[in-house]
Design a protein that fits this description.
The complex is a heterotetramer, with two copies of chain A (about 325 residues) and two copies of chain B (about 260 residues). Chain A is of the alpha/beta class. Chain A has one domain (about 1-135, about 170-315): Glutaconate Coenzyme A-transferase (3-Layer(aba) Sandwich), CATH 3.40.1080.10. Chain A is about 40% helix and about 20% strand. In chain A, a hairpin with a 6-residue loop joins strand 6 (about 155-160) and strand 7 (about 165-170). In chain A, about 60% of the residues are buried. Chain B has one domain: Glutaconate Coenzyme A-transferase (3-Layer(aba) Sandwich). The longest helix of chain B is centred in the first third of the chain and has 11 residues, at about 35-45. The chains are: A alpha/beta (about 325), B alpha/beta (about 260).
Chain lengths: ~325, ~260, ~260, ~325
């Protein structure tokens, strides 16, 4: 459903937009996410996934969430099995081409327990962008004629008033909450993103509430040294959490590659043992540890070092 | 002439489709075999072919043996010419800056429609597949090359679900739906190279891989296939092409004999 | 109480309008007096007020004595919190991230419509002015404060051309035109602070600058002015405020006595 | 007029999009601009103006151009007086707030000799953006109800098919040529922009032909070191010209501030003597010198040094 403009404006008007410190614990930050809300997830596939925030969301027992993400990877399995969501809005869902089709996704979707709302990749991007721009839709020339289009409820087509050409009208998406992992942010929420930006800038501006996790919290004076590197402006951010290695086992550009060993192990467990296997995984990695550091402690130091060195090598850093 | 070389069907498909990519053009390549083929083209006849990745990458620098298993990860971005947002890289297709989209196909029908969403009924799918990703956008906006294994269950009369649009129901139906640019260009399989009849918008056999016969192609195709009057025989992969493939993908992650 | 201080009319307008900007809010400020007033507000009661510039700047760091003569130049960008494209910074207003727009006005009418395009006839202008810049966008999308010299030729019954929309022809005409958010908030002059009657959408005298009278305001206004039953008297600029102004703009480039 | 999609696509299809060297002289580059074409000018106001290209355009005696620019400064005066254009599409036209209203703009527009097509700043930005996205329009909530809207021919309004809210439809602008000045570009056209990006990324993607001037041409390997800093992709660029100090007397972020002394002198001449004064200026600075270096040679070394040092000081460089 496309929101009415005055409702959207009212929500932003209520925000404190001052340049103020917003550093919070993972627990405090995730507490800003209400049950039954729409949570847009930054990153794409297994890159810059806000895993630390998702870890905490699952531990807090969130329910009824709608999750949107450009491409959904293993975090989608975890959110489904943990019962946090039964409605995923995405364009592709699996760990990766070489790992096969997610058995978890198939289980929940084929049984009708969960809804996979499929949009084309660009269309989902345009939905966030329309939301970020404060318009109710953006015109597009994609998806027309396909069954993807026909299956969607909130989408329209019309002849262009200028050219007569048929256009798809992609409805705005203004998520209740955005969760985004970045390399660096200052305590006010000014964020720098290196490497692939994905849809994160648009997601941040489209959402009503924005939670950032960052590999490192830096001083505002460092932000001001290179203002053209700021990707997300502080005034849309509601919480900043420092979470080094906050994407593991996924990757964070320039800092670490995926922990492929962990990913292989997870996918094997998931593909062989399905929901039960993922429940075990959640017990061990999500519900068991007391802190996110304890979660990281379950990983192999050797694998983390390898992922870190690989990233540095790739980027000449 | 090169000496006879041995190759598997996936390698054959990879080499054949690489040859379709012209120099000076821009190709939007998916992970797996399409990416491998595009890099092969760069390293043979199409030195200034530009590759785009869905993840937001223009002109990546791919190290042999390190082909990224996703086109959304950092290996794609390092040493590229430009990275930009996912939405913006996909929009380049809409603007016209992409000459070819290059997809693997789970299931394709006589009109070139691709299904990568599910097998079975809309409301009660037998098998849920990963989904469209950028496939729908690519097929909606640019000319598409599909590389796939030639099997009856993959080349079907009608796909269960049109994830990525080809010529829809044939004739002018694609244009009438609003898709006035792009469209299916070629389907490359281990048996044949297939094009599309412009008027009817249906698949049409144009060339045979060495050793394949029209009869064999027909037997492995799930619909009545148009056949061009004059068929050509595609040259088999050369030793040089195969050598490059093996350098790029030494573990044969993307050209294992089972196809795409 | 502060001792009596001397100030010119531009300084008075600047200080008065600065006081309207609340802490924790975001203001889109044009070059000249609006920018000066916004920085004054930051340095007095509104420490966490955020300034945006049309050129694409969020939270600039402006050095005293180096106020940029354009909000599109590099001095605005250095040491800011963020710079982004012009289109994107203007779109922040549409999204709702801007609490106030702050404009200087060439000519304003009783409905708060501003003309900065031309004096005279559409097709045969007597004086062509520079144009809307971001003014129209600001006035279309956010609540607006206008700072100006109070003169009959500037506060007119009907502007020759609606460059930046106020309440158009009054009543619900603004909303009916599609402008459902934003609208004129205050007009600050050297004689008065004026608001707008919500139902009628017309300008309304709310407060008087020290020493000014309703009669004087009426004489310098080119239309029949609504007057609130209870008028307040604005406190004059303090020595502290003036001192800050003089530090920021030592050459009085933006507060020369002649007005905005 | 909004172009038909197939026409737009056909133009881009014809371009050689290969990664090939495109370094050209100012003369060769400006020769790509046909008379009577629409030229979009990068930068804004007196920042990153592609003055070197404009200098050469005027010397080549271009005629009948439509010029669009977000905010038009002194280069607009020069193009009018030189007879290169009689149609300016912009949102604001003058040297600057402190310099008063351009007498040249007033002369040509008030006499009816030239047309000033006035769009709001954001609307012009959305026109380029729509052009860059390959859509015929973008919806917007600005300009509605104003006389600026009423004066424009190629603009429409409609009720939103999702919300019923009234929207302005801002028509796409796909300029024939874009001229853009950047800090750095490689020989293929990959361009880096520092500081305020203005509308330049959109302009480059919207235009059919793109001419870049750069303070410095750098190696492609330098571009590849920081691909997230590339603002304009090589395949839309048709010519790259190395033009150090190519914005003077305007500024280039991080490298030089405006030559305010030169600007003051120009504005004084223009305001006091109008068209005749600007003709003299053109004779001295544009038609007189044989090369752009000779043009720069007319400036005071002291003023250029001051502008350069100021820029370095502001940016801590």
């Amino acid at each position: 459903m496309v929101s009415s403009y005055l409702e959207l404006r009212a929500k932003i008007e209520q925000k404190d937009k001052g340049l103020k410190e917003k550093v919070k614990s993972l627990g405090e930050a995730a507490a800003l996410i209400p049950d039954n809300s729409h949570v847009a997830v930054g990153g794409c596939h297994y890159s810059r996934t806000p895993m630390a925030i998702i870890w905490e969301m699952i531990r807090q027992g969130k329910k009824g969430l709608t999750i949107s993400k450009s491409i959904t990877a293993t975090e989608g399995d975890l959110l489904l099995v943990a019962g946090a969501t039964r409605h995923i809005v995405t364009s592709w869902f699996s760990a990766g081409v070489t790992w096969g089709v997610s058995r978890i996704m198939r289980h929940y979707v084929q049984s009708g327990e969960a809804r996979y709302e499929e949009w084309s990749h660009m269309s989902l991007g345009l939905r966030y962008r329309a939301g970020a721009m404060g318009v109710p839709f953006l015109p597009s020339r994609s998806m027309l004629g396909s069954d993807v289009f026909k299956r969607l409820k909130d989408i329209k087509e019309m002849p262009c008033p200028f050219t007569g050409e048929k256009l798809a009208l992609i409805p705005a998406l203004n998520p209740d909450v955005a969760i985004i992992h970045v390399q660096k942010a200052d305590p006010y929420g000014n964020a720098q993103i290196r490497g692939l930006p994905f849809m994160d800038k648009d997601i941040a501006l489209a959402a009503d509430t924005v939670i950032l996790s960052a590999e490192q919290i830096i001083d505002n004076s460092d932000i001001r040294k290179a203002p053209d590197q700021t990707a997300i402006p502080f005034f849309c951010v509601d919480a900043v959490v420092e979470a080094p290695y906050g994407c593991l086992p996924h990757e964070c550009y320039g800092i670490y590659e995926p922990d492929f060993h962990h990913m292989d192990t997870y996918v094997k467990l998931m593909m062989e043992r399905g929901v039960d296997g993922v429940k075990e995984y959640l017990d061990r990695y999500f519900y068991g540890p007391n802190t996110f550091d304890d979660y990281l402690d379950q990983f192999s130091v050797k694998d983390i070092l390898k992922a870190t060195l690989q990233a540095k090598k790739s980027h000449g850093g | 002439m090169a000496v006879e070389v041995s190759y598997n069907t996936a390698e054959l498909v990879c080499v054949s489709s690489a040859r379709l990519l012209e120099d000076g053009k821009v190709v939007f390549a998916g992970a797996g075999l399409p990416l491998l083929a595009a890099i092969l083209a760069q390293r043979t006849h199409a030195k200034s072919l530009t590759i785009l990745f869905e993840g937001g990458v223009i002109g990546p620098f791919v190290e042999p043996g390190k082909l990224p298993p996703s086109t959304n990860e950092q290996r794609c971005a390092a040493h590229a010419n430009m990275v930009l947002s996912t939405t913006d890289v996909l929009l380049l297709q809409q603007r016209g800056y992409v000459d070819y989209g290059f997809l693997g196909g789970a299931q394709i029908d006589r009109y070139g429609n691709i299904n990568s969403s599910f097998i079975g009924d809309w409301d009660n799918p037998k098998v849920r597949l990963p989904g469209t990703g950028g496939g729908n956008d690519i097929a909606s906006l640019v000319k598409v090359i599909v590389a796939m294994h030639h099997e009856k269950r993959r080349l079907v009369e009608k796909v269960d679900f049109v994830t990525s649009p080809g010529y829809l129901t044939g004739g002018r139906s694609r244009q009438q739906s609003g898709l006035i640019a792009g469209g299916m260009l070629k389907v490359v399989t281990h048996l044949a190279i297939l094009g599309f009849d412009e008027e009817k918008g249906v698949m049409c056999l144009e060339g045979l891989q060495r050793g394949a016969t029209v009869e064999e192609v027909r037997q492995n195709t799930g619909f009545e296939l148009l056949v061009k009057k004059e068929l050509y025989e595609a040259a088999p992969p050369t030793a040089e092409e195969l050598k490059i493939l093996h350098t790029l993908d030494p573990e044969q992650r993307y050209t294992s004999p089972k196809g795409d």
